Amino acid sequence: MDLFRLYLLPCLFAFLAGAAFCFIFNLRGRMLLLAPLGAAVGWLVYLLAAPLSGDISRSFVATLAAAAYGEVMARVCKQPATGFILVGLLPFVPGGGIYYTMEHCIAGEIDLFITTGIHTLGVAGALAAGVLLVSSFMRLWGAARHHFRRTLSHKGGST
Amino acid sequence: MAEERSDMSRDQLLNSAADIAVLLLENGGEIYRVEDSVQRIFRAYGVAGCQVFVIPSLIIISFTDGEGHSHSQIRRMSAQSTDLSRVGAANDLCRRVCRDCPSYGQIQRDLEACRRLPVWPLWAQALACGLVGFSFTFIFGGNWWGSVGASLCGLAIFPVRHMMIRLRTNTFFVHLAASFAAAVTALLLRFWGLGQNLDLMIIGALMNLVPGLALTSFMRDIIAGDLLAGIIRFIESFLIGAAIALGSGFALTLLRPVLGG
Lengths: 159, 261
Known about the structure:
The structure holds 2 protein chains of 2 kinds.
Chain A: H1 2-24, H2 31-48, H3 55-77, H4 81-89, H5 95-107, H6 110-158
Chain B: H1 10-26, H2 31-44, E1 51-55, E2 58-64, E3 70-76, H3 84-100, H4 104-115, H5 122-139, H6 144-166, H7 171-191, H8 198-206, H9 212-223, H10 227-259
Antiparallel strand pairs in B: 1-2, 2-3
Helix pairs in contact in B: 1-2, 1-3, 1-4, 2-3, 3-4, 5-6, 5-8, 6-7, 6-8, 7-8, 7-10, 9-10
């Protein structure tokens, strides 16, 4: 029961939120099921990464999972990766950070305003870094495979 | 230079490639995808040495044919929207063009079909905005009533955003107004006693507006080497974030003295 409330239900809602975004970004067909799954996977990793200290590293790890899922699924389904990655990463975009930064600003709490603002930028940076890492790795892998295949077929042709 | 494989003239080829590029870019395709698609199309029709430069607001395509004539085309992009099924369709069209080298008329017909792809009806999009608010408030730790309140705030965002985009307002102002609407709705709901946690309600609804595409694609642009495009998208996401903060901030400062909080 605890497992359901702590892990399954949030992931279910992450899936629902992702599915709702599919309607806004006009994704259709099987994408309506596959893209939100990335958000659920990412959120599960985010919850499991609770022992990591700090929101920023948790978002980073979750982003890695969601982006990796997106890149792999994009290649499997022969669809642009944008859809998968966009929907998968949306739960980690620091909407709350933006809001709390603004609230501290209005309240005149300059210390908290600056701390929250930098923290929000940090989370956004973690997101960007996660996408950077996964996308670079996939590019490298694709290029390496391409190169390997070409040399292999070249050798095969000459002999 | 290789002979052209179909009856397409070079200007028609340039037009078709530019049309496909515009379709990709204006619906949220990545910069490298647009540049790569154009290069592939030209290669498929046997034209070498084509130059493409794309940033989110501009497409430049240029090449010199065998007789030494230069052909070039510039497309200035206005507003961008995110319609990923059109990106997918344009991508498929590009693959098909590269494989079959169809005629100009055929490409234009396919482009028209891509432009006429259906979008979800407005009521479905509005409900989706509500669902986004509901889910995120719940995920971020709100209770059921707070989530219901957030879904109403999300529903309030949609007509405002839709109207503002219709009126061709700039992105900054669209997000400012929509965020203002969400915060006002949340304040009113709390005033009438639905949902205690104002912050969570507003945050859940604001997730509708966060610059997801700009934030995730600017890094992908930068990795691909499109630094200029990456910087443009980075600034865009920063501005959208500021607009969201300002919009809800205005609402809170103006209405808190009246409605309490």
